[in-house]
Design goal:
300 residues; alpha/beta; Rossmann fold; 6-stranded mixed beta sheet; two-stranded antiparallel sheet; 12 helices; 10 strands; globular; binds Fe4 H S5; binds zinc ion
Amino acid sequence: MKCRKCGGLAAVELRRHNAAFCPPDFIAFFRNQVSEAVRRHRMFTREESVLVAVSGGKDSLGLWDVLLDQGYMTTGLYLDLGIYDYSKESRAKCEAFAAHRGAPLLVVSVEEAVGAPIPGVQAATRRPTCSACGLSKRYLMNKAALDYGFPVVATGHNLDDEAAALFGSILHWQAEPLARQSPALPSTHPKLVRRVKPLYRLSELETAAYAFLRGIDYIVEECPFAKGATSLMHKEILNRLEEASPGAKHNFLYGFLEKGRPAFERMSAVALNECARCGQVTTGTLCGFCKLADQVKRSR
Ligand code: Q46
Ligand code: ZN
């Protein structure tokens, strides 16, 4: 296989682009895709400080690596979920990456914020672990950005994550998640920061290849609660489609963003208030995170 750019020996084949690249040209291709995402969706400018949410995995550390190399002003944000050894190891990977690159890293503990680590929150609330975790992550990312003055939070969601989320929402025709499914969510309230996903054009395989070729030391193990998650089943189904028809995932997601999402966006405009206790954005009186913290407190 020959590199599409230089004709040298290719190391990464991208069937959906009908192309193959040698390591340096693949790295350039990857960075170009990130630049294209940032430009197309006006995610952030070089004058803005970007808070990059890092989990210690290949996607988020790969994203931080690209943004650092492209000269953006970035700070990492690691949310310590308190999930046994997984959290200890993933935090160590983020700290080592930040130290190696001389980049600032903020660490926020879920236990300090909500009163228990994620497994404790699950036990106290009997809510599915990933739902309590997802709610906590979204809340704490926004809060950290507001507290430290960042206008935007970037996450490492890739094409596979986005296509699987879309597939899940369509299976149940969930209008609100469909309206919010976007590579860039603008700030619609002074207490809500912009959220962007600069890797949405790159597949999981591509982010793994990038991290490997860049020598990024990331945590390979999945969170123990990811096992059996429906999102993994949706990814498997989409992978089978992709195998049979390269580009299927890409067409599914991009087609929705272009043709489907505007309709859902019009349908579900919700009024936002400030939480009576913490002041963060909510559709009710008390936000979901404050309710979660109350449940944890009551269970003690
Ligand atoms: S970290 Fe949290 Fe994920 Fe673990 S508990 Fe579920 S949501 S699987 S991305
Ligand atoms: Zn609140």
